[in-house]
Amino acid sequence: MTEELERSFEDTIARDQRLEPRDWVPEGYRKTMIRQISQHAHSEIIGMQPEANWITRAPSLRRKAILLAKVQDEAGHGLYLYSAAETLGVDRTELTEKLISGAQKYSSIFNYPTVTFADVGVIGWLVDGAAICNQVPLCRSSYGPYARGMIRICKEESFHQRQGYELLMTMMRGTEAQREMVQEATNRWWWPSLMMFGPPDADSPNTEQSMAWKIKRHTNDELRQRFVDMSVPQAEALGVTLPDPELSWNAECGSYDFGAIDWNEFKQILKGNGPCNAERIAKRRAAHEDGAWVREAAAAHAAKQRDRERSAA
Amino acid sequence: MSEVRKDWPLYEVFVRGKRGLNHVHVGSLHAADDRMALRNARDLYTRRNEGVSIWVVAAADITASSPDEKDPFFAPSGDKVYRHPTFYEIPDNVPHM
Ligand SMILES: [Fe+2]
Ligand SMILES: [Fe+2]
Fold first, then answer.
1. Residue B12 belongs to a domain with what CATH number?
2. Burial, A295: exposed, middle or buried (Cβ in 10 Å; 0-12, 13-18, 19+)?
């Protein structure tokens, strides 16, 4: 019986068809998928914080409205993804508890601070840009609900990147001090953005299985290279220097060579020792706990309404 | 009074993209009651005019075919090729068919 189920699972993947919620899947596939989708969801939710930091201080009403819409989108992305994770038999509340207890991780990138308003622009340009690189191939992920969620998300990400880049262009046309802010923010976010693609292929033990299951379509290093190649001309057009003296065109490969990434920094952040890890989780925990009475009150109100309807009937 | 559920129930959301199209399943959300589900669905799934009409259905109220019974369940239509127009051979010189 199991053999037959396994065969039909492998078959579905081989034919490049999607697996759907009630299909039988091996335990390993289910676990990997739950881990990937929930970590992704957590990243969207935590990812609201660095930028939300600037909503009240956005320099104009236009920028404030844009930033609000962007942060609201990220909340939406988190919810699409929790919705996809739930089709695999986990509960959303349980996932939130795993996030705030530290049992599940989120992307390392959101543990860096947003020091100036230029960071908001650079996050849109580089961080959302790297997210797009990662996410576009995920639209073809073998798990249907995840792939469909990614399609929605990718449609919305383009606005995120463009508003960030436009913000930076505006600042670059401003004063010398503004140009400096953009350069400094670029210096802060460039290397962490490269780390968003995860450890180098040689240190990424799960990649092979994920590629075989078509959960992942490209390796970390492939996607990172693609991102570097896309970013260099964008930096030139903007007029900033990417903080890597080793960055140079390699005519033979038709791509840019770049310097070594400080993987120790990455590991430290994953361990919880980044500049903002504690702050991000504390904020998420407070939001969850402070909201408890609202959730309970709404549930009590709904129950009362139901009782009233029943006794009226 | 019935038991108060602390966790809000799961709703499935369907959106009609524009007039003339069917409602299509877009995802799910949690809400305390039907009205809240509808409002949340609007905020979550139609932030960019993706729909002109929304249905929300408590997930617990949906009856679905299960994949285990897929073959026998869909079998009644599997062997009825005569339901498709291509089953019938019409000579090329017959127009408009
Ligand atoms: Fe996002
Ligand atoms: Fe985004």
1. 3.10.20.520
2. middle
Is B33 inside a domain boundary? yes
CA–CA min distance B52, chain A (Å): 17
Q: Are strands A248-250 and B23-30 parallel, antiparallel or unpaired?
A: unpaired
The total domain count for chain B is 1
Phi then psi dihedrals of residue A38, to 5 deg: -75, -35
Does residue B53 belong to any structural domain of this protein? yes
Whether the CB of B63 is below 8 Å from some CB of chain A: the reply is no
The answer to whether residue B96 is domain-embedded is no
* pLDDT, tens only, B26-60: 999 999 999 999 999 999 999 998 999 999 999 99
Domain interval for residue B49: 2-63
- Residue B95 sits at φ, ψ, to 5 deg, of -80, 165
Rounded to 5°, angle at Cα A45 from A41 and A51: 140
List C-alpha distances in Å: A135 to A76, A153, A248.
16, 8, 26
* Contact at CB, B36 and A298, closer than 8 angstroms: yes
ipTM: 0.91
Q: Which residue has the tokens 């009409």?
A: B53
